[in-house]
Amino acid sequence: MTDLAFVRSDLVDAKPPPHRTSGAWAWAQKNLFATPLDTLLTVLGILFLLWVVPPIYNFFIGHAVGPNGTVEECRMETAGACWAYISSEMEFFIYGFYDIPEHWRPNIVFALGALLFIPLLMPKVPFKRTNAVLFLFVYPIVSYYLLAGGVFGLKPMPTEKWGGLLVTLIISVVGITLSFPIGIVLALGRQSKMPVIKTLCIGFIELVRAVPLISVLFMASIMLPLFMPQGMTIDKLLRALVGVTLFTSAYMAEVVRGGLQAIPRGQYEAGASLGLGYWQRMYFIILPQALKHVIPGIVNSFIALFKDTSLVYIVGMKDLLEAVKTKNDTALEWQSANTATTGYLFAAMVFWVFCFGMSRYSIFMERRLNTGYKR
Amino acid sequence: MSQVSETTVDRPVNTSHMQVSSTNVAIEVIGMHKWYADFHVLRDINLKVMEGERIVIAGPSGSGKSTLIRCINRLEEHQEGQIIVNGTELTADLKRIDEVRREVGMVFQHFNLFPHLTILQNLTLAPIWVRGIPKAEAEDTAMHYLERVKIPEQALKFPGQLSGGQQQRVAIARSLCMQPRIMLFDEPTSALDPEMVKEVLEVMISLAEDGMTMICVTHEMGFARQVANRVIFMDQGQIIEQNEPEAFFSNPQHERTKLFLSQILH
């Protein structure tokens, strides 16, 4: 027997990993004070926070005038944010010029929306199909008649009067639910083997995507009426909806195309070899995987759409931001050094809450849809 | 070229159902040509496969073996000649293509399971939506075939949780759930670790024992010897030689065949 030969006589059992040093001090040593440079950066970082945080805190909370404050307090030299202004004008920020006695109508729409939409987002709640049908087909019709009125003795309420958060939410929810399927169809069309469909889809995507949303909205408000019979007008809100939806669809199509391209050809072939038709292949095999790959991109587009709703002031709609701006400019009784700033901060915070919510939800979905097949 | 091995299965192969007595033609390929752009991949292919035949196609890589069987269920389009499967000629008619695909199962080198669906869902998708079989019944059939490929306990897992050999057995079961009349195998063991080749070959042999019509592109010459009733050798897009396995291996005629066999059989 040579020295090279070796036969293991007994196998080594698995044992627990070695102890890790733990505790706050160990963590700080490793992450904050590992080297002299780290220590220096840590100290600088703390100084920076000391410099920045107190003024921010004072403006938002410390010296701010609370929701029950008065305009006199807001006008004081030392005053911070004027939250009293926000709470006093809240109704305008939410409903715009919608008649005050009729505010119960948008309230029902908000409540119904939450009631139908939130369970739809929760994977564990049953009756998804019924829920989706109610939300996608019944809810819009009910909401429209409830908001616009003119039926069942409801006072007619032209869309010119709608405003604030109501309009922001209507445009983003409608835009999101319509642009998603349209975007998917455009992406599939772009990959089609039929030259006419392919050309049309490419043409639409490349045209709309290469134009600023503002000009799409301009077109929607100036060009659309030109195609209509004389005397017929198209509702401003509808113009905004069409413009935003088409614009986002084009972006969505490109995001979805990215996902489609990530699916190996074998998946198409396996579906085909089992006799599944084109739409079955897409619906059951390709799209579930492709869309999962591009959730971050899809949500990116949704977030962009949500923020872009503030451009509908172009066609004369008063969305949340425009409502805030209008009040900032016209509410003379609330004029003070910080009134306008507080108004814009409020709008920013509302936008942030919705966008952050979308972002967190997308991360939740990504985790949930991960079936552990990443290799 | 992927490795060539001679894995054989130790048990005796039951040949009682393997006599090809049928006079029904399963597949007929007549004067078929195919080009990829300017490249002439398949040249004048003529092939007649009877029901119950088990054919192994061998040949160097790039010889067109895979392309040939992919033409049989129209994953690839041929430009000249005719391909007739179960009496249906393959043309651009999508309806006919789906008709043929329903009756022709295919197993791929890389399994191509649907990673977002469980094993059971992988097996029941096509029976439910293509054949219109009720879900409960489709699941019963699926479990039957999973037992047949010896992994019923994996039914609720996702493909990513299975080994390569298990995935390929699931892929075979998925094809069988459609109860096809013909099975095509495109290098089913080439992507597997050597330890797993045998479990897949076992399943294929048991299929052959049941009299399934099979066309296998494979480098498993042991399998060819044990199971095939005909071996076809291809090179440069053409069928160079075909014969019964014994004669093919012991007495190859064409120079190219001799060279190929001398390289893979030591």
Automatic annotation (TrEMBL), chain A:
GO terms for molecular function: transmembrane transporter activity. Residues 165-355 form the ABC transmembrane type-1 domain. Gene3D superfamilies: MetI-like. GO terms for biological process: amino acid transport. It is found in: Cell inner membrane; Cell membrane. Keywords: Cell membrane, Membrane, Transmembrane, Transmembrane helix, Transport. Its main location: membrane. One of its GO terms (cellular component) is ATP-binding cassette (ABC) transporter complex. It is a multi-pass membrane protein. The chain crosses the membrane at residues 40-60, 81-98, 104-121, 133-154, 166-188, 200-228, 344-365. NCBIfam families: HEQRo_perm_3TM (TIGR01726). Belongs to the binding-protein-dependent transport system permease family. HisMQ subfamily. This is Amino acid ABC transporter permease.
